[in-house]
Amino acid sequence: MLNFIYYPVSGIMWVWHWLFDAILPSSPGWDGLAWALSVVFLVFTLRAILYKPFVKQIQTTKKMQEIQPQMQAVRKKYAKDKVKMTEEMQKLQKEHGFNPLLGCLPMLLQIPVFIGLFHVLRSFNRTATGMGQLGLSPEETRQLPNYFFSVDQVQNFLDARFFGVPLSSFITEPITEWQAFMAHPTDAVDFTRGNIAVVVIPIMLVASFATYMNARASAKRMTAEALENPQTRFMTMLSQYVFPLGILVTGPFFPVAILLYWVSNNVWTYGQQHLVFGRIEREEEAAREAKQEKLKANAPKPGARPDRNKTSLVKDGPETDEAASGDTTTKQKTSNASAGSGQGQPKKQQPRPNTNKNRRKGGRKGGRH
C-alpha cells in the first residue's frame, strides 16, 4: 500500500550499499559496515534534499518570534472572543508572510522516510508473526527479494554483522526469529541478547543525548517573547525532555539500523542548525553594518556645516514655498502702506450739516413771524 515510499527509500539505500560494498573488503564485519554506512548516507541524502525546506523552517521560526508581541496583544484584546482572535491572528500572520506549515514541513517529510526504512529493514527478516508480518520460515525468508534488493543481497544483509550483531536485530526480538540470520538453519546462533544490548544501549544513549542537544540549541535561539507563548513553551519542553526520554524507552524495540538512522539524523541536524543560523546571523550583521555605514556617510563631517539642500528640498519644500509666498504678500502690503504714508495721513471728513433739520428749524421760525 505504501510502495511509493518503500521503493524510493530502498532505492537510495541500494545505491549507497553498492558504492560502499565496492570499496570495502568482503567479510561479515566489513559487510555490516557497508550496510550501516548505506543507512547513514540514506539519511544524509534525504536531509540534503530537505535543505531548502529546513531553511524555510528557520525563517518561519524567526518570523514567529518577531511577531510574538503582536500575537500576545491580539490574545489579550480578544481573550473573550475566540473567533475574532483566530481571525485577527490569521490576518496578522498573512500580513507578515508567516506560514505555520513551513515550520513543520521538514519534520513531516521525515516521518514517511522513517516508516519506509523501518519497513524495509524489517522485510529482510520475514519470520516474525503479528500485524503486517508474513511468519515465513528461515529458508523462505532467505529466498525472497526485498524491493530493490535481490535475493543475494538479502542473504548478505542477514549474514552481515555490526559489532557482532545483525543490523535488523533488536533487544526485545524473539529468539525464534534469530535463525534467519544464520546461513544454514542448523547453524548455531553466533550472538546473544546481551551482545545486542551492548551495541544498542550506547547507540540509544547517543541518540537521546543528540536529540536533547538539538532541542537545547533551538531553545537558546528563541527570544523571551517567544518563550512566553504557552504553545511554544510546551513544544520546547517536549523536544528537550520528552523526546529524548522516548528514545530510551522505545530503543529496545527498534533494530540497530533504525537507531543508527536516528543518531545520524540528529548529527546532521546539529551541524545544519549551526551552519544555517550562523549564515543568517552573518547576513543580519552585514545588513546592520551597511546601515551604519550609510548613516555615517550622510552625517556631516566634524566642524562642517550640515548641507541643508538635500533635506530642506525634500522635507521642507512645500512649507518653504508657502512661507515665501506669505513673505511676498506681507511685503506687498507693507509697501502699499508706505506709499500711502508718503502723501500724509488722510484728513478726517467733517460731518455734513443736517439740512433737513435746519429746514425744519427755519420753517418753524418763519411760521412764527
How would you portray this structure in words?
The chain is 72% helix and 0% strand. It is built from 15 helices and no strands. The chain is elongated and about 95 Å long. α1 packs across α2 and α2 packs parallel to α12. The chain has 369 residues and is mainly alpha-helical.
Return residue spans where pLDDT drops below 50 for at least 5 consecutive residues: 311-348, 355-369
- Rg computed from alpha carbons, rounded to a whole number of angstroms: 43 Å
Please state the overall shape, judged from the principal axes of the Cα atoms. elongated
Terminal residue distance:
143 Å
Reported for the largest beta sheet, the result is:
none
Tell me the series of helices and strands, N- to C-terminal: HHHHHHHHHHHHHHH
Structural class: mainly alpha
What proportion of the residues is helical, as a percent range? Answer: over 70%
What's the β-strand tally? Answer: 0
How many helical stretches?
15
Q: In percent, how much strand structure appears in the residues? A: under 5%
Layout of SSEs?
Blueprint: H1 3-23, H2 28-49, H3 51-66, H4 68-77, H5 82-95, H6 100-123, H7 138-141, H8 151-159, H9 193-220, H10 224-227, H11 230-250, H12 256-298, H13 308-315, H14 317-342, H15 355-368
Q: Which labels suit this protein?
A:
mainly alpha; 369 residues
Q: What's this model, at a glance?
A:
The protein has 369 residues and is mainly α. The protein has 15 helices and no strands. Helix 9 (193-220) packs antiparallel against helix 11 (230-250).
